Amino acid sequence: MATAASATTLYASSSISISTKPLSPNKPLSNISSTFSLRPLPIKTKTPRLSVSASATTTAFELGQAPHSSTPAKSLPFRVGHGFDLHRLEPGYPLIIGGINIPHERGCEAHSDGDVLLHCVVDAILGALGLPDIGQIFPDNDPKWKGAASSVFIKEAVRLMHEAGYELGNLDATLILQRPKVSPHKEAIKANLSALLGADPSVVNLKAKTHEKVDSLGENRSIAAHTVVLLMRK
């Protein structure tokens, strides 16, 4: 424990009196007289007492609990969230993007169905709401999510969004993969994603990019997606 205190006495001038004689147009200014008297006044200043003590603290993380705030989330007119996901592509797995099964010799190796687009959309919505990410809400070590359709995760994220008093303003997603070509399936993916979100297709945008044959994405060994969402207060 550390303490500190001090007191100081200061002196200041006071009791200033001024007396003047009436002025006349014919009288010089030297007839003005002034008297000043000074006497010390004690002024005591005291610094506040500081007390610091160390004590053991335990956080929610140390207890294995999800962190929470005692202050309710601030009600904002809109919220923005970003999501990202990446999965390895391996033979023997289906390639599911936005809930649509895409013919390809490789698919996403994952605990659930490995839908990289839906996973990053879920994370974007959760992020906008200030909630934990998809891995905390749907942990990949929980057997009940083994092989689960990612539409389950989307529906839960949408439920949380409405529960918080928001609706989707718009969504912009980018898929990154070398193969296969997404363009033949883009409209089907967009229509299914819009239906899962309960949103008009006009506010859902989907783009696809290759990775110019660079690293695992460009070598057809992985697939990634980015999503940005704007949530509007109802």
From TrEMBL:
Its cofactor is a divalent metal cation. One of its GO terms (biological process) is isopentenyl diphosphate biosynthetic process, methylerythritol 4-phosphate pathway. One of its GO terms (cellular component) is chloroplast. Belongs to the IspF family. Its EC number is 4.6.1.12. PROSITE patterns: ISPF (PS01350). Homotrimer. Pathway: Isoprenoid biosynthesis; isopentenyl diphosphate biosynthesis via DXP pathway; isopentenyl diphosphate from 1-deoxy-D-xylulose 5-phosphate: step 4/6. This is 2-C-methyl-D-erythritol 2,4-cyclodiphosphate synthase. Residues 78-231 form the 2-C-methyl-D-erythritol 2,4-cyclodiphosphate synthase domain. Its main location: plastid. It holds the Pfam family YgbB. InterPro entries: MECDP_synthase, MECDP_synthase_CS, MECDP_synthase_sf. GO terms for molecular function: 2-C-methyl-D-erythritol 2,4-cyclodiphosphate synthase activity; metal ion binding. It comes from Fagus sylvatica (Beechnut). It is found in: Plastid, Chloroplast. Keywords: Chloroplast, Isoprene biosynthesis, Lyase, Metal-binding, Plastid, Transit peptide. PANTHER family: 2-C-METHYL-D-ERYTHRITOL 2,4-CYCLODIPHOSPHATE SYNTHASE, CHLOROPLASTIC.
